[in-house]
User: Which sequence fits this backbone?
């Protein structure tokens, strides 16, 4: 597996609390992505980053924010968690534009919002 | 934005048979089409991909075909084995737009021994 980790791997929280998920890579890839995976919906893009401090919204960005202060770290924050944000969250990295285009996925974080 | 449709949502085959999964996309700017395999509780992993300037690509028992005119691409698995059982996702990617990918909803493939 590519050098990509996520923390925490599992989290249970209560509605209304803030939550931050961390994605860390050791591949020095420019692009990083946050997805959520729900049954019947595949992988849906939340936010992505194309460089340090450069981020943009994906298709399901409402209720989420991101930050990237270093190449290796991409943080996803749920400002006030809701039950609809219960999901499995995957981070991915890519060196797209060069010889490789594939996205490498982290191990995922299972988030439960009660 | 891009829209990807994937069919079928579930597919059951006998060991040794072939399996075909089909996807359509809507944005002609998409130029890279990967297929991912996800085993239960694991992360998605790339199994094969194809660029828009290629019509077909094969890797042992797995092949992908692309029809740019019709905007559809397909995954073909021959001589299926029980270990091929997993969820398969197609994706349409724009390499010139931060490599953003839109994924299909997935196909659960079951290979019966």
Assistant:
């Amino acid at each position: 597996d590519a050098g990509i980790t996520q923390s925490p791997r599992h989290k249970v929280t209560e509605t209304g609390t803030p939550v931050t998920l961390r994605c860390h890579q050791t591949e020095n890839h420019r692009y990083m992505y946050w997805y959520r995976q729900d049954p019947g919906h595949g992988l849906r893009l939340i936010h992505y980053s194309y460089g340090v401090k450069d981020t943009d919204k994906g298709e399901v960005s409402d209720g989420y924010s991101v930050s990237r202060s270093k190449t290796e770290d991409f943080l996803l924050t749920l400002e006030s968690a809701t039950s609809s944000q219960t999901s499995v969250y995957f981070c991915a990295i890519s060196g797209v534009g060069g010889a490789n285009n594939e996205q490498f996925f982290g191990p995922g974080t299972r988030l439960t919002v009660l | 934005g891009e829209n990807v449709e994937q069919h079928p949502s579930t597919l059951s085959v006998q060991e040794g048979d072939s399996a075909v999964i089909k996807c359509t996309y809507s944005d002609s700017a998409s130029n890279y089409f990967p297929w991912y395999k996800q085993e239960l509780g694991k992360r998605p992993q790339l199994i094969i991909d194809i660029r828009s300037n290629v019509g077909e690509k094969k890797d042992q028992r797995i092949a992908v075909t692309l029809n740019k005119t019709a905007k559809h691409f397909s995954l073909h698995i021959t001589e299926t084995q029980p270990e091929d059982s997993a969820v398969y996702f197609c994706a349409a990617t724009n390499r010139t737009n931060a490599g953003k990918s839109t994924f299909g909803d997935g196909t659960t493939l079951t290979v019966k021994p």
Q: What stands out?
A: The radius of gyration of chain A is 13 Å.
